[in-house]
């Protein structure tokens, strides 16, 4: 048996929607116990990549493995937790109910106390989910995604509607989750956010990887101007 040091691997993966190549010949390994950022403008293929990792989309070509399994199998085994761009809770539910519900879905859930601590929702447990601010709701959605104590947590643009303070609080939680030896993959279109929260940044454009490395390396090799993105035209 080989010891795998990758949480997820994409080998030669492509996915098109009609004539649009959303993901184009992707080779990517998501390291274990690390936080990886997918950085790219709208339409660069981040959500398509993530949805293939979650088994929600099937690649046209190539292979995706998550902890050595097919994506759907890994998700069903509770190895992957996801915070997607959509998804709502029953309006009148309390935060505690939502998290208890999530924990019951998994064989070896995280303790409620751990979720409350890591996602910083301890003071929200008795609140209704429909009465929360955007930032509070995203922290609850983070706790929900983490309920199965997944080895890999996947977050698709989790801070898109948050103010600066809420973002900082959110990323602090993600960092403390990762410090427990768990892997995180998130997407963003902010270089600053990728640089603050991630150990490694993968820059995407038009379904391809333009560059990868640490925040410092990305800033050096790609430069702010390129990373602050054009959404059309060749890369
Ligand atoms: P990102 O998440 O980086 O914004 P997406 O993966 O959502 O990028 O989209 C990549 C490209 O694929 C875009 O051109 C988008 O319009 C297209 N696309 C994504 N999903 C669909 C879909 N379900 N049907 C048609 N085109 C899609
Ligand atoms: Mg997206």
Automatic annotation (TrEMBL):
GO molecular function list: ATP binding
Main subcellular localisation: membrane
Tree of life domain: Bacteria
Compartments reported by the entry: Cell membrane
Keywords, ordered alphabetically: Antibiotic resistance, ATP-binding, Nucleotide-binding, Transport
Domain ABC transporter residue range list: 8-231
Topology in the lipid bilayer: Peripheral membrane protein
Protein's recorded name: ABC transporter ATP-binding protein
Native organism: Streptomyces mooreae
